[in-house]
Amino acid sequence: MEQELSSIGRMTQNLIDSGTDLGLRILVAVLTYIVGRILINWILKALSKIKSVVRMDETARIYVRNIIKAVLYTALFVTMIAELGVPISSVVAIIVAAGAAVGLALQGALSNFAGGLMLLIFRPFSVGDYIESGGNKGFVKSISLVYTVIRTFDNRIIMIPNGTLMNSVVINTTATDLRRADLSFDIAASEPADKVRETILAAVDRCGPALKDPKPVVAATGTVTDGVTYAVRVWVKTEDYWDVYEPLMETIPEALNRAGIKRPATLLRMDGQWTGDR
What we know:
- By secondary structure, the protein is of the alpha+beta class.
- The chain folds into three domains: 2-105, Orthogonal Bundle (Helix Hairpins); 124-172, Roll (SH3 type barrels); 178-258, Alpha-Beta Plaits, CATH 3.30.70.
- The protein is built from eight helices and eight strands, in the order αααααββββαββαββα.
- The strands form two sheets. Strands 4-3-2-1-5 form a five-stranded antiparallel beta sheet. The protein has a three-stranded antiparallel beta sheet with strand order 6-8-7, covered by helices on one side.
- β1 (130-133) and β2 (136-143) form a beta hairpin.
């Protein structure tokens, strides 16, 4: 009887000791969580004041903040688990295995996430820019962490994966303040070059948005059968590009017609385009 009571007493004492130890571990884990949260909030606030972070796009800033927040909370979670007596090696192995499985399952999505982060940090283009990539052309409507949405001239919406954009050539035609409008016209070889230049430059001069500095240029750049190809290069403000390009495609042929300047005799007459007198 005394042995049974002694055994029960030892078991009770062991339970009390184990409960006390577990309670202390839980208390330490709770305190670790509270202190950890305070430190994480302090780090995130300090991060938001760093100049390089402040200059980031708002979406990129939020994305970077969330990644750092996730890393810090993961570290806090591992620390709390260690305080509870769970071997860290086991926890780390589980996290690594889960991360590898998720990474394999979401390989394409993660590639787009990484591409989105790079786009938002390095900013090769911004919302409102006109870009060309992989045969797609349009104005950038939005840049998310997975897709870049562009709107075409005929008002179609195209969603391009960010991973694709980061691995292809992107032409940004609105990245600078000035842009050059390039046109070309085939003129009969018998026409005096000076007369052709004066006529074209006069038509360009009447186009209001066309810039006078840098000066517009008219130059012979090649030959066709019975004729010479003249390139017309006009500098414009980027936002005025189409307000210059399209009117000049109409007014220059009209000016050439009024001046009696002919096209090469071998070119066929085409409706809607400058034909000239033959």
